[in-house]
């Protein structure tokens, strides 16, 4: 495990020496700015619409459609090159013939991806001090912390899924499309399925609610730090990392 | 340093490497020669633990490639075909990254990097971005990266592919220099490269070893060409029974004349004995000549022979 700092540093270097990371970051900054504008607008019209103001931070971040669409596009874009690019350019051959284990490589790439995911959330955090100190909107930092933890573990899971698909192909586009499809199922299809199940009064509605990512994040945003969700995210992440390691090792079989 | 025993690698039903065995001693520079698709790269990938063999064993510096891959990787420096590099990095930065990955101790890293920069003559470009370097420089950076941890064994896959003649000469000189400290296995499909650099040649064709000989012996081999008038089979039999003759190959017939290529043991010059035998039987002799075979002859011979036997095998199936 002693090679991980070296590998992570190289991975982050690759992100920031290419325009990709900056473009995604810029897009997120635009989304954050737009959401913040909406939030301030909503707060200033307090009397008219109560529904979104009751829970302003959730509507700022976790319930905003642009944020989720941005996330669904950004995570595949960040993870697609992690292993697919190494395979396409052949550098995987130099990497896997250095005295480094497959686990070290996969964990390093995953850590770099998670770090980039957290960097993506920074544009949203930038506006919060203004809201607190300048606009004197004294929101409760507790739910914000629980939302932060929830989004972090969610990111760990999503990045692990993206990394897995990146290991399967040498074509970045294919990796991105597969990760997008799976993340889309996780975020939107579970939600639709949940609404359907509730509408039909089916007993498995509760089960779907548990895996519906959007509802999980809403719950985190309300300040409920549900450890079952954290456990779910982390176990999926560990499982996907394990599968990715196995994919890399499989080349030496047969 | 390198022991390979009946190594086989299958891709589905295709045998890329088929029962290859050879061994390389310390300090040898061995050229793995073969046409494209002969199994050179696959063999090297197995030796560097990038791929696993379907069957057979291989050990480098006493460590088995399947049982102790990390030990093998510590002892081996590998330059893959086409020299893959992280093009966004700078030369010195990349070498430092490789030094860290290959466990060069912190106190020795600086010295190790300076040494490979000097040996590979990268001083002029050490702070340039890899993506901006010419192919020749990239090749040298790849070599420098392969040897930064001072491995016992260097495995180089087509180290001069795509270089211009001057760069080729430089890289070859570098490889010869490295030969005094490292055991080197290099692959190529360029005959003159083997002659310029290697002490021994292994010709590989259709996944099999066709020739494995020191270059000295290959050079001394010769072929006698004989043409005489008479019944072909009788002449052939007559020639085969001359002591020292290994193989008689009929090449063509021209009316009453039959021509043969004769291989002798250790390349001995048996022209006089052969002439005597032909005269004794009263076959008029039209041509008798000795040809020193070049590496190229041997290569073409080996490769076409393998191709023919592989085709025969296919037809038999």
Greatest interface (CB-CB under 8 A), with counts per chain:
A-B, 25 and 31 residues
Largest sheet of chain A: none
Strand content of chain B: 25-35%
Topology pattern of chain B, helix = H, strand = E: EEEHEEHEHHHEHEHEEHEHEEHEH
Total count of strands of chain A: 0
Low-confidence stretches of chain A: none
Q: Tell me the number of structural domains of chain B.
A: 2
Strand tally of chain B: 14
Number of helices of chain A: 11
Q: Rough shape of chain A? A: globular
Feature tags:
heterodimer; A: mainly alpha; B: 317 residues; alpha/beta; Rossmann fold; Alpha-Beta Plaits; 2 domains; six-stranded mixed β-sheet
Overview of the molecule:
- Chain A has one domain (4-252).
- Chain A has 254 residues and is mainly alpha-helical.
- The two termini of chain A are 27 Å apart.
- Chain A is 80% helix and 0% strand.
- In chain A, helix 2 runs antiparallel to helix 4, helix 7 (141-168) packs parallel to helix 11 (227-249) and helix 8 runs antiparallel to helix 9 (205-211).
- The mean pLDDT of chain A is 87.
- Chain A has helices at 4-16, 19-44, 56-60, 65-89, 91-96, 102-134, 141-168, 172-199, 205-211, 213-221, 227-249.
- Chain B is an alpha/beta fold and 317 residues long.
- Chain B has two domains: 2-218, Rossmann fold (3-Layer(aba) Sandwich), CATH 3.40.50.300; 222-292, Alpha-Beta Plaits.
- Chain B is 38% helix and 30% strand.
- Chain B has eleven helices and 14 strands.
- Chain B has helices at residues 40-47, 69-75, 91-101, 106-119, 135-146, 165-178, 191-197, 215-220, 232-240, 271-280, 295-316, and strands spanning 2-11, 14-24, 29-33, 55-60, 63-64, 76-79, 153-157, 183-188, 200-205, 208-214, 222-229, 245-254, 257-264, 285-292.
- Chain B has a six-stranded mixed beta sheet, with helices on both faces. In chain B, strands 2-1-4-5 form a four-stranded antiparallel beta sheet, with helices on one face. Chain B has a four-stranded antiparallel beta sheet with strand order 12-13-11-14, covered by helices on one side.
- In chain B, strand 9 (200-205) and strand 10 form a beta hairpin.
- Chain B is elongated.
- The two termini of chain B are 38 Å apart.
- The model of chain B has no long low-confidence stretch (mean pLDDT 85).
- Chains A and B meet through helix 1 and helix 5 of A and helix 2 and helix 3 of B.
């Amino acid at each position: 495990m002693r090679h991980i700092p070296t590998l992570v540093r190289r991975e982050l270097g690759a992100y920031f020496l290419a325009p990709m990371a900056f473009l995604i970051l810029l897009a997120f900054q635009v989304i954050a700015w737009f959401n913040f504008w909406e939030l301030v607008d909503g707060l200033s019209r307090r009397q008219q619409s109560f529904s979104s103001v009751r829970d302003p931070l959730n509507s700022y971040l976790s319930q905003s459609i642009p944020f989720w669409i941005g996330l669904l596009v950004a995570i595949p874009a960040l993870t697609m090159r992690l292993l697919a690019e190494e395979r396409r350019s052949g550098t995987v051959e130099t990497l896997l013939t250095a005295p480094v284990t497959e686990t070290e490589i996969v964990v390093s790439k995953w850590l770099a991806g998670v770090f980039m995911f957290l960097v993506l959330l920074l544009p949203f955090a930038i506006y919060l001090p203004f809201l607190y100190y300048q606009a004197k909107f004294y929101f409760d930092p507790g739910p914000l912390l629980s939302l932060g933890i929830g989004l972090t573990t969610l990111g760990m899971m999503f990045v692990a899924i993206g990394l897995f698909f990146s290991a399967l192909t040498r074509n970045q586009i294919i990796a991105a499309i597969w990760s997008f499809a799976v993340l889309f199922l996780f975020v939107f299809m579970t939600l639709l399925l949940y609404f359907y199940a509730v509408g039909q009064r089916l007993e498995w509605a509760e089960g779907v609610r548990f895996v519906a990512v959007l509802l999980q994040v809403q719950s985190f945003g309300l300040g409920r730090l549900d450890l079952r969700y954290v456990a779910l995210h982390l176990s999926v992440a560990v499982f996907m990392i394990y599968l990715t390691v196995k994919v890399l090792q499989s080349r030496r079989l047969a | 340093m390198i022991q390979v025993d009946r190594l086989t690698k299958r891709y589905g039903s295709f045998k890329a490497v088929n029962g290859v065995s050879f061994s390389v001693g310390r300090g040898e520079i061995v050229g793995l020669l073969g046409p494209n698709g002969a199994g050179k790269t696959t063999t090297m990938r197995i030796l560097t633990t990038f791929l696993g063999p379907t069957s057979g064993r291989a050990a480098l510096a006493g460590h088995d490639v399947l049982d102790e891959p990390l030990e093998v990787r510590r002892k081996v420096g590998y330059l893959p075909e086409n020299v893959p590099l992280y093009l966004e990095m700078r030369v010195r930065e990349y070498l430092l990254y490789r030094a860290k990955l290959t466990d060069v101790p912190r106190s020795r890293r600086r010295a190790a990097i300076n040494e490979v920069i000097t040996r590979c003559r990268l001083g002029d470009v050490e702070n340039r971005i890899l993506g901006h370097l010419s192919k020749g420089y990239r090749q040298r950076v790849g070599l420098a990266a392969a040897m930064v941890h001072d491995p016992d064994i260097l495995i180089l896959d087509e180290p001069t592919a795509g270089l211009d003649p001057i760069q080729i000469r430089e890289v070859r000189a570098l490889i010869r220099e490295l030969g005094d400290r490292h055991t080197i296995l290099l692959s190529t499909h360029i005959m003159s490269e083997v002659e310029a650099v290697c002490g021994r040649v292994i010709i590989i064709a259709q996944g099999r070893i066709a020739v494995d000989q020191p270059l000295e012996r290959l050079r001394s081999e010769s072929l006698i060409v004989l043409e005489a008038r008479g019944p072909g089979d009788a002449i052939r039999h007559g020639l085969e029974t001359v002591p020292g003759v290994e193989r008689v190959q009929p090449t063509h017939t021209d009316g009453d004349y039959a021509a043969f290529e004769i291989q002798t043991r250790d390349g001995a010059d048996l022209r006089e004995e052969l002439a005597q035998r032909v005269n004794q039987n009263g076959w008029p002799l039209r041509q008798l000549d000795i040809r020193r075979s070049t590496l190229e002859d041997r290569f073409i011979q080996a490769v076409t022979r393998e191709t023919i036997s592989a085709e025969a095998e296919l037809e038999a199936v």
